[in-house]
Amino acid sequence: MPFGDLLSELKALPMLARYSLTLYRRRDGTVASNGRFESCATVVEDPLCREVSRHFFEEDMEVFFEEGTPSVCRYGGGFFGFLIPFTLSGEDFCLVGDGVREESIDLWQLASLARNGGDAFSLLPYVESLCTASYEEVEEVAEQVRRRIESYRLPSQRHHERAAVARAQEPVGDEALYAVSQALERLDKMGTVTGCIAICCETIVSAFQAARIAVALPDSERKSFSVTGVWGLPEELGTLSVEALQLFTAPDKAKKTVLWDGKLRAALPEVQATVCTTFPLRAQGERLGFLVIFDTDILPNAAMLISMLAGAMAGKLSTLDKDATRSKENALSERLMSLTDTLLQIDSKDLLYESILKIASDLIEATQGSIMLIDKDGVGMQIVFTLGMTLNIARCLQLKVGKGIAGMVAKTGQPLLVNDVEKDSRVAMANRLRFKSKSLICIPLKLKDKVIGVLNLSDKKNLRPFTHADLMLLTSFANLASLMIERTEVLEESERFEQLSVTDPLTGLYNRRFLKSRLEEELNRSARQGLNLTVIFIDLDFFKSYNDLCGHLAGDEALKLTADIIKDSLRDMDIVARYGGEEFCAVLPGTSKAEAMIVAERIRFEIESKRFPGESDIPLRRLTASLGVASFPEDGRTFNDLVHASDIALYEAKARGRNRIVAARTSSQQGESKREVSEARPAATQSNLAKTLDFNAYLEASLQSKG
């Protein structure tokens, strides 16, 4: 039946009266200017709809045909069209019907159609005149047309199909059937990709006498397919793009013996052959490549068995690929857990930055890199650690969010993989001399949705570009690194607040609350281990008067200098605190009273010898201190007892004239114990009076010196 007659008969059907129809025919082994299909007959009801339909369908006609079922599409300003693929007399056709629209009109899409020839409103009356239909109505029309075309199959076509069926039913040797069945069982048990390919190809060679075999499988990123010679061919045969793969797996080539010429030969120039038969490898709708047999005439019955074998191999390869992916994910998870344990042991920010950068560079084999953190104002960025460059110089660089490659990553929060900084339109910059390669990766460091910094890496060890796999691996690690950075900052902040809560802000010494806690701990330890412990109380003499005469700034400085003297006179294991006002307390674990007296004298002497601010203006012309010493266990076994004993000794030193050391009286001095304690208590009770009398004398001396 001529093409025009076929189209006229279809157009005469009432259901197609309002449709424009166009018939496309596959050209014989050549490529038309608009694809592998070209228009061979048309009946146009509406030119505008036909033109829009042509742009929509012709570009992907091969894809629509490969699907093998009628397709209904909405496009343009709300137009509907259908496409029906079919085969008549051994030739492939596509019938396209268009010319109707949906009930509502999409003005925005209509405006895009009209941009080259007026405005959307000029087209509106024209579009409104078109017949309307629902998606379901167009779908029903397409199905009815498909059935009508099915009834048009010519006798010659049916004869051709019957001949093909008869040929396919030619008996298959028992040996071939047995070999394939055995291969299927072996495939099910195989655990490697190479093993699956070997089983499949060995079976094809032995059962069907194949001369040469090759297999095309996807790379790790599935952007290209590597073709490998498996039997009778060189191992490396080249690489195919996703588009080139279609040349081998298209319906007119798949599972059929065709000539090895034209674009097939151009796609794999390394292969010299006469004919080829390609078997697509598909599993769960995913293209895994193909298996191709060269220079062997594969009969239909053999093709059926080989196709079955190839399908089983594809399914097994898909399973192995998923297992490998899961295994990698599990291995990555285990590695990240191990890295987490490693990073959790680090409590210093600088060591953490160094470890993060080293781990990240090892993961993707980078030789240069840096960690940048965003300032609290959210505007600037600081380089906190580097690899392959000088840190001190890097820290001097002025970096801002939104400026430069790292700045843009910090602003957008999106990772960036660059294979060539000079050719990538996103960066388009000259390569810097310090970089050996032009490839780099920038990963944002995020806490939830907030970007806190950027991880930069460059110069892979083999100088090749970084890959998408590198990007994904680094992204997973960056999430962990961000959490570790936050954790360390929180810990340091917590430690800072804790330090503030237990220290005196003026002198930096521990405060009274911390002293009580530590002294009780040391008392318990001393009791358990049978050790001595001595407490020294230090009080500056006439400090209130000094403060009033010399000023509070001088008083604060005197307290800080006194704190330094006490700390320098003690061991690292000793504890010193500001007990209150001008009074200090030192705790000496494992120290007897006699040993502590030596330390106390050193402190007294250093304070007496120190030149304090303004002390030349005070009557006595020097600042001194009185000290009281009490020891565990003889002077007390509790915090309160020891403090009380040392306090009494301190006030006794004050009563005896100041600038001296007094040790607490021990209970071992049986003869004078009761009397000395009773005398000590009145001394403490009268200390305020003593202070008042001494202060009056102090003021009198001061007035005389000024008079």
Automatic annotation (TrEMBL):
Ranges where the record places region Disordered: 664-686
CDD domains in the cross-refs: GGDEF
Known catalytic reactions: 2 GTP = 3',3'-c-di-GMP + 2 diphosphate
Domain GGDEF span(s) in chain numbering: 531-666
Coiled-coil ranges from the UniProt annotation: none
EC number in record: 2.7.7.65
Identification of the protein by name: diguanylate cyclase
Species this chain originates from: Geomonas anaerohicana
